[in-house]
Design a protein that fits this description.
The complex is a heterodimer of chains A (113) and B (111). With 113 residues, chain A is mainly β. In chain A, strands 2, 4, 5, 6, 9, 10 and 11 form a seven-stranded mixed β-sheet that branches. In chain A, a hairpin with a 7-residue loop joins strand 9 and strand 10. The mean pLDDT of chain A is 93. Chain B contains no helices and eleven strands. By secondary structure, chain B is an all-beta fold. In chain B, strands 2, 4, 5, 9, 10 and 11 form a six-stranded mixed β-sheet that branches. In chain B, strands 1-3-8-7-6 form a five-stranded antiparallel β-sheet, with no helix packed on it. Classes of the chains: A mainly beta (113), B mainly beta (111). The interface between A and B is medium-sized, with 29 and 26 residues.
């Protein structure tokens, strides 16, 4: 069974540009989470989808970040316009319904110059 | 301070035991976790412990939980070069809605 996959693995963009990160959860996992780790600090929660609905988006830093999960399968996280402080590693995780084990993807390393 | 705290670096000699410590402020979690991130790889769930347990052992790994002091530790026996990684202490928050992580401890192995 394939694990959580993320694309791209690395992205380097200039300040002011737009970047879209993609996460494909494990097939059948209704719960999908986005996290990010900035500058070697702690990994912080961004938001949680249950199927296509946003269950909790309390961790989204500001309105430059837009997450979608149309159809309840893969999810995208768009940053527009990107700022320097958005640099970091963005992780995606998924779980089956009503379980606590989150399976993480390899992350997307975003560098904003 | 941060909810989950851990030291940033640990260096041990190959074959010695490694002990990574973590403290947390909120004791409401049912599960506490240790995740491992190897270079270039994603987060791997290494082990977890229920909050009603004091200890869990799994081969070379021993997790100790002191609920009174809100202290969690991970001991790796006979540390090998393949154990080089960043280890994240974490706790669940409110019925799997999210996980609260520490900053990670980078474990380096000296020959």
């Amino acid at each position: 069974e394939a694990g959580v996959t993320q694309f791209p693995s690395h992205s380097v963009i200039e300040k002011g540009q737009t970047v879209t990160l993609r996460c494909d959860p494990i097939s059948g996992h209704d719960n999908l989470y986005w996290y990010r780790r900035v500058m070697g600090k702690e990994i912080k929660f961004l938001l949680h989808f249950v199927k296509e609905s946003k269950q909790d988006e309390s961790g989204m830093p500001n309105n430059r970040f837009l997450a979608e999960r149309t159809g309840g399968t893969y999810s995208t996280l768009k940053v527009q316009p990107a700022e320097l402080e958005d640099s970091g590693v963005y992780f995606c995780a998924s779980t089956p319904q009503y379980t606590d084990t989150q399976y993480f993807g390899p992350g997307t390393r975003l560098t904003v110059l | 301070g941060e909810d989950v705290e851990q030291s940033l670096f640990l260096s041990v000699r190959e074959g010695d035991s490694s002990v990574i410590n973590c403290t947390y402020t909120d004791s409401s979690s049912t599960y506490l976790y240790w995740y491992k991130q190897e270079p270039g790889a994603g987060l791997q769930l290494l082990t977890y412990i229920f909050s009603n347990m004091d200890m869990k052992q799994d081969q070379r790994l021993t997790v100790l939980l002191n609920k009174k002091d809100k202290h969690l530790s991970l001991r790796i026996a006979d540390t090998q070069t393949g154990d080089s990684a960043i280890y994240f202490c974490a706790r669940e928050y409110s019925n799997a809605s999210k996980i609260i992580f520490g900053s990670g401890t980078r474990l380096s192995i000296q020959p």
